[in-house]
Design brief:
Order of helices and strands: HHHHHEHEEEHHEHEHEHEHEHHEHH
Strand order of the largest sheet: 1-6-5-4
Structural class: alpha/beta
Radius of gyration: 23 Å
Number of helices: 16
Number of domains: 2
Strand content: 5-15%
Number of strands: 10
Helix content: 40-55%
Amino acid sequence: MVDTGSAQDGSPLRPAVVPAHRNIALALRKALDKVDGATGMAQHRVVSCWGGAIGEAFSRDSILRVAESEAPLDALWQIAELIRGLRFPKPSGLSEQDRLVRDLLLAVALAVSDRFVATNCPVPQGAGAHVVPMNELLAASVVAAHWFDRPLTIQHDGAGRGPQPVSVIDDHPPLEFGTEAGSAQGVMRQELQALLARYFQQGEGQAQASAANLAAGLRQLRRIHGIAPMVAIRHGDQCHALAAAGERQAFTVSFDLPVFEYGSTERPADVQALEDDLMLHLQNSLQNLFLSHVEDAIVTTRTKVFVSYAHEDETWRDTLRMVLRPQERKGLLEVWDDKRIRTGDDWHKSIDEALTTCRIAVLLVSMPFLASDFIADEELSQIFGRHAADGLWIYPILIGPCDWVAEDLLASKQMKLCDGDAFSLAPVPIQQRHLAEVAKEIRERLAA
């Protein structure tokens, strides 16, 4: 574990940097052992591709030299060239040797990334959780894995975001229609139980496991599957189950799960450069590792849901995200809103690029929504332009009373109402019933 204390001068301590973190190195060696013990590897195309990209024969010693390189950026470029040359088939066409090579190269890339982070690592900040001043979950997770010495498990999420750290719990509490979500720890315990169920093939609807039972399951998850979860909280996310520092500490102690924050808009120049380099290599290289022909793969399936809202209505945006989170967890959709836009990015370009990959645009209509010049002049014109050009489905929801029928673009669409009026005017149980309908209608539209 990383020392979370402070130096004598009060400044945060930098985590101790070691040549190779024990658990990250262990994950690499496990992947190597599986390749060593597999039959038919001498005929696999990785043998010839390795020589071309790395410049030496494919061997255990050569692999370890790359993973432990003193020039990690050079090694990341070599790995990118190797993966490009391999041109892995789509997941359905992978042989057992392909899967072993893919897992090995993933472990090598993460080991090299850890060494790169070790020489450029930001100092952990924050009293209740370590704060990684990065916007992208993938890059932030690599830094957190370095801090906590936790191996990362990365898969392609199939929802348009590319490679994602599936060993990181990055979640809002689910909205339980008609019931209270319960305590923060109760909500996160449900998330842990769902995580364990995926790997141990337990059915849904099981009784709530005790804290001791969950802790035992997490130990077995790490021992059998090599998965050591962490918990990520997006900066400023007040609706996350572990938003309170005291809740985080109690949860960490109970389950030995480190918690970190990410998504801060304030990034020092050196940290921004570190994040950009990590995303350049990991996002692009690993996407090619999972899917060689991206245009034919599930990543291009338009499953994104664009959310247009006024900043005064952020609470309703968060509610919508909670409503859709069960589908997002299953990889059925991905929610996109302007929180994805980073400092310095071109807003118009970012929104236009997002809309090209979205199938549905949800409009959270209210007085502030209609009053926003940016929404009226920029977002709506782009949204309705995509509707005309690409068939983007527009789904307006009346969250606050306003004269929306006077707006020609909105008046032409069927508005989602709550018992014939704005959602904010309805009692909570009625809101929840209609929000369940919203989730159902979006799911059915994406499945059509």
